[in-house]
Amino acid sequence: MPLNTSPTPTSRSGGCTLTGALSVTTHVRDAVSIIHGPKGCAHHNFSLLHATGLDNDRAVIPGIVSSALLESDVVFGGEEALLRTIRSACSGGAGAVFVLSTCIVETIGDDVEEVCSRDWPVPVIPVPTAGFLGGTFHHGVNNALIAISSLAGPVEKDLTVNIIGEMNLEYEVEENYAEVLRLLHSLGLPTNIRFVHNLNTWDIASLGAARLNILRDPSLVPVGEHLSRIFSTPYVPSFPSGLSGTLAFLQAVGNACGVDSRRALEIEQALQAEVLADFADIGDQRGVFSGPVLNGECSHAAQEAADALHIRVSTDPELPALPVHPSVGTAGIRRMLHRWRRSLHA
User: Fold this and answer.
1) Distance from CA of residue 306 to its chain's centroid?
2) Residue 345 burial by CB count (10 A; 0-12/13-18/19+): exposed, middle or buried?
3) How far is CA 149 from the centre of its chain?
4) What ranges do the domains of the chain cover?
5) Helix (H, G, I), strand (E, B) or coil at 138
6) How far out from the chain centre does Cα 344 lie?
């Protein structure tokens, strides 16, 4: 269990629209992501994604190629360069090709959608990623998820749940998924697919089969709304955060799927009481919340845990730091309390 304080979350969820989209498309294992633009855009993002993968013990080479626009392409148009790159990607056995446009391509006016709509042997899907028009990292994630959902078709519904839009660049992505999986299992609900995390194009075909979509974060609500329109699938807007948030999550998921959540809630409440009892040694102390991002959700979860242990939170910088980070479920609170213990007992 990793106990080191994670670096600034914005380092993993900030940046340009192109990077956000690539954090999604490169997790489709049998697909190729074409960055339509100069080589530098591809080099920068390849290095970032490769290094982040290694940090998360995922030694995978991102499937990125560049259309490698030259100065002459910028002057006369880069559609021919894109055609050559798509042709090469399709000949290599890719299950799908995603075409992500850079800011320079949008500036010169290449008709990327028209090129992608031609008769190709595999799906060639454009993903809007021109950040200079006002897009952000999160816009890139949303645009990629919505574009990739076109690979799914009509299927019969079953009693499964999709996990939508995991933050593939965050340090605790697998731990957070495992916690959501644990909670779903307590309700007797199996998962369908992780959309999109480490899967193949043929897995995406079953996207519409799930009874419920669980979004990683409220910033993904546009994706949830899109999937609701296309597949009539309701969604829960976020992973659970904090102690009470975890209980509310169980109840919301149970209600959405028509499952009685009372037994799961009893078990989770008992587990939370056990976790708090394990950290009784840090109760009745004083500390100050610290963290690069103290948003409302994180702060609420941390304050709730502090109140449960009668820890008095101050603004005095001389007091021990209580690291605050996004805490998914009861397991996330446990990891945070481990960090608090280490700080208070230092």
Assistant:
1) 28
2) exposed
3) 15
4) 10-151, 241-346
5) helix
6) 32
**pLDDT at position 134:** 65
Which residue, chain included where needed, has tokens 């100050």?
A: 288
* Spans in the chain with pLDDT lower than 70: 1-15, 40, 42-62, 73, 75, 77, 131-134, 293-294
Pull the structure tokens for residue 11: 């380092």
DSSP letters spanning 173-222: HHHHHHHHHHHHHHTT--EEEEETSSB-HHHHTTGGG-SEEEESSGGGHH
10-151 is classed CATH 3.40.50.720: no
Identify the pLDDT of residue 74.
73
CA end-to-end span of the chain: 20
| SS3 state of residue 161 | strand
pLDDT value for 32 = 95
Cα 20 to Cα 33, 140, 147, 152, 275: the distances in Å are 13, 5, 13, 21, 35
8 A C-beta contact, residue 25 and residue 33: yes
Measured distance CA(79)–CA(265) in Å, rounded: 56
Strands across the sheet containing 31-36: 64-66, 31-36, 96-101, 124-127
- The predicted pLDDT at position 240 comes to 97
Place of tokens 């949303």: 142
CA distance linking residue 11 with residue 263, whole number of Å: 39
Asked if residues 160 and 39 have their Cβ atoms less than 8 Å apart, the reply is no
The pair of three-digit structure tokens given for residue 208, joined into one six-digit string: 């519409």
Structure tokens belonging to residue 180: 């959501």
Residue 100 has a pLDDT of 93
